[in-house]
Specification:
The complex is a heterodimer of chains A (595) and B (81). Chain A starts with 6 loop residues before the first helix and ends with a helix. Chain A contains 25 helices and 17 strands. Chain A is 41% helix and 19% strand. In chain A, helix 14 links the parallel strand 7 and strand 8. Chain A has 595 residues and is of the alpha/beta class. In chain A, the strands form three sheets. Chain A has an eight-stranded mixed beta sheet, with helices on both faces. A five-stranded parallel beta sheet of chain A has the order 2-1-3-4-5, with helices on both faces. In chain A, strands 8-7-6-9 form a four-stranded parallel beta sheet, sandwiched between helices. At the A-B interface, helix 1 and helix 10 of A face helix 2 and helix 3 of B.
Chain lengths: 595, 81
């Protein structure tokens, strides 16, 4: 929805592109089909121009006018012959209006059936991604404001169809939305609709608004190819807050829910939401580092906290250099970084030296910024998962671990600096789901690879035979790793032995000493139960070679090797020398006795 | 054609078609310019509206038969204001 896009300028651009086609300037290609119940000749050149700006050479298939269903349902139609990667389906409220006038309210159900039929057909016949438009609300009102109180009024039908399109798209991974209803409302329907152009040539909207349609389709397609903004680099003084912290002090800056700090407060709220949905926030400020931190520590009106940022750079170096360092640290592309700074000088310097970084102009008035950034539609994505929401936290942990490992003089000291706490306990109902998941999924660090499901784990938990099923959870000062290891012990009193039937661990926590800690616990158990021998087996699979010598490393003796590679091991619990560990129990002595 | 209107029209045609060699006369029709198809027709109308800050009715657009008609319609609208 870039407000700077001009229809005629884009037309001219498209003309130039078609002249120089096949010069190979574009690194990526895309096959896009456009199916519509309105005319799209005016839209297609805009799409070509805008895709070209993104470095994508687009090949477009224009479906026959108002034949979307026919094309989609026919497996041998020209649509499928074209082998589109994306199918953009445009439905105009004007065409729906014609159908309403002809057939009345039954158009609603007809349309629903038709649409799901189209989506189903495309899904089953091709692997194309569908970009489905929503309806722009009609201008026609037959009951005035009472219109929406009438169940079968045209505006009620359109609104219901939009809800349906949205609900149905949520259920389908391969259907994305082109929310024309919202796009049109940016300018208002008064300027959006040009009924003369509809009468003359079935044009979806006025030509002036057509670039917004095209740019949104391009934004979605580009996001679907994985090109999205992943990181925002933020200036501090006069960007995140009003004023200069070095001069005005942490309490003199303008920030807060009311008064002259409100625009900055609102920007911070906006950024915090973006962070929650997976965009990494970083700071790049020309400041004394200590000064830059002060508002975060001392000013309670601040919305963003230091932990919201995965990188915090405040020094007197030039910004492109600092941004390049941030880019390297986070290991993301420059073209997935957005730079927000109130200073035209800084914006220009970044644009010049790091041309791939996205640098929007900003209005003089900070109150306009969020609206303007939203209008630019910079944050388009093609999917969202729980993992995205946790991305910022995961990055932060990783960045800090790395920093700590660089600061630590040796690895042991590093492990010690992690301040790890481990909790070993019997299987508990609240953990069964995760325990079963680990048993099902762990391949590499898994000695016997018994795939036990949740019910089987529950049976172990309640085992009256005296089975000891243990789970271990790990935390360090950067975060919680959750439940990461499972060890199942079975006492064999008649033989004076304690058998290890299962031992597995998530590879995420390799090399931290979790297994040493657990082995100490196992031996402790054996001694407590007065069982002098520890027995164990290793069952080889195609993936667990890494633990082939696991028991040997702890001083076990190999007592048997079967032809299929299974090895049996035994250890005298009394002769075991306790291994040194760099973690402490989460719940002192209590934890040990509950086992 | 009024000279001023003729000149601005020629410029508008040239930039809309992206062709600097277009020459217009009152009798010029779509048949005289190869690229003048239905797509370009709408483009022209909207470009002319922008250039002259006028707005044509649907009927006016549909009744245009050549560039002379177009110039007359523009002149009539400008003079009305």
């Amino acid at each position: 929805m870039n407000p700077n896009l001009d229809y005629f300028q884009l037309m001219a651009e498209a003309r130039r592109i078609s002249c120089q086609e096949s010069t190979g300037a574009c690194s990526r290609k895309l096959r896009l089909a456009v199916l519509a119940d309105c005319a799209v000749q005016h839209l297609l050149p805009l799409l070509r121009a805008l895709f070209h700006r993104k470095g994508i050479q687009v090949e477009i298939y224009e479906g026959p006018f108002a034949a979307t269903e026919l094309e989609a349902r026919n497996p041998s139609s020209a649509l499928y012959e074209f082998r589109p990667e994306i199918v953009s389906i445009l439905h105009s409220v004007q065409a729906l209006r014609d159908r309403f006038y002809r057939g009345g309210a039954k158009v609603q159900n007809e349309f629903l059936q038709e649409l799901t039929g189209i989506w189903d057909a495309i899904t089953s016949t091709s692997r194309a991604l569908v970009i489905q438009s929503t309806f722009v609300a009609p201008m026609e009102r037959f009951f005035g404001n009472y219109d929406r109180k009438i169940d079968n009024s045209f505006s009620s039908i359109v609104s219901r169809l939009n809800s349906f399109i949205v609900d149905e798209a949520r259920q389908r991974r391969n259907v994305l939305l082109l929310d024309l209803e919202t796009v049109a409302s940016w300018v208002g329907r008064q300027s959006w609709f040009d009924e003369r152009l509809w009468a003359l040539g079935k044009s979806l909207c006025s030509l002036d608004q057509l670039p917004a349609v095209a740019s949104n389709i391009v934004d979605i397609a580009v996001a679907a190819q994985g090109q999205t903004i992943k990181c925002i680099v933020l200036d501090l003084d006069n960007t995140l807050w009003g004023g200069v912290v070095g001069d005005d002090g942490p309490h003199g800056i303008r920030i807060g829910a009311h008064g002259d700090g409100e625009p900055f407060f609102r920007l911070q709220c906006f950024l915090r939401e973006l962070k929650r949905r997976g965009i990494l926030l970083t700071v790049c400020s020309k400041n004394e580092h200590a000064n830059a931190l002060k508002p975060f520590h001392e000013n309670s009106e601040m919305v963003l906290e230091l932990d919201d940022f995965v990188a915090f750079v405040a020094n007197w170096k030039n910004k492109p250099e600092n941004i390049a360092a941030i880019q390297k640290e986070l290991n993301i592309g420059f073209d997935s970084m957005l730079f927000i700074d109130d200073s035209p000088f800084e914006r220009a310097s970044v644009r010049t030296l790091l041309p791939e970084v996205i640098v929007p102009e900003l209005a003089d008035d900070p109150a306009e910024w969020v609206k303007y950034l939203s209008e630019l539609n910079l944050f388009e994505v093609a999917s969202f998962s729980k993992q995205d929401a946790q991305r910022s936290g995961a990055y932060l942990q990783e960045v800090r671990r790395r920093a700590a490992s660089e600061a630590a003089p040796n690895f042991e000291a590093f492990l010690e600096s992690l301040d790890m706490t481990i909790e070993v306990e019997r299987f508990a109902p609240r953990h069964l789901n995760r325990i079963a998941q680990l048993l099902q999924r762990s391949n590499q660090f898994n000695l016997t690879t018994h795939r036990r499901n949740e019910a089987e784990c529950e049976a172990l938990m309640n085992d009256p035979e005296g089975c000891i099923p243990l789970s271990a959870s790990l935390k360090d000062r950067f975060g919680d790793h959750g439940l990461i290891s499972v060890v199942v012990l079975r006492p064999e009193p008649t033989e004076g032995a304690l058998a290890i039937t299962d031992w597995l661990m998530s590879c995420r926590v390799l090399g931290r000493g979790v297994e040493q800690y657990l082995m100490n616990q196992v031996i402790h158990q054996a001694r407590t139960l007065n069982l002098p021998t520890i027995r164990a087996s290793y069952i080889p699979t195609s993936k667990n070679d890494m633990v082939k010598d696991f028991y040997a490393r702890f001083g076990f003796e190999k007592v048997r090797e079967a032809p299929n590679g299974v090895t049996d091991w035994a250890l005298d619990a009394m002769s075991y020398k306790e291994r040194q560990v760099l973690m402490r129990p989460a719940r002192d002595e209590m934890g040990a006795t509950t086992i | 054609m009024e000279n001023v209107i003729a000149e601005r029209l020629t410029q508008t045609f040239r930039s809309t078609f992206g062709k600097s060699d277009i020459q217009l006369s009152r009798g010029t029709t779509a048949a005289d310019i190869k690229e003048w198809d239905s797509l370009m027709h709408i483009n022209l109308i909207v470009a002319v509206e922008r250039e002259f800050r006028v707005r044509f009715t649907t009927l006016e657009v549909m009744s245009l038969s050549n560039v002379g008609d177009l110039a007359d319609t523009i002149a009539r609208k400008i003079n009305k204001e």
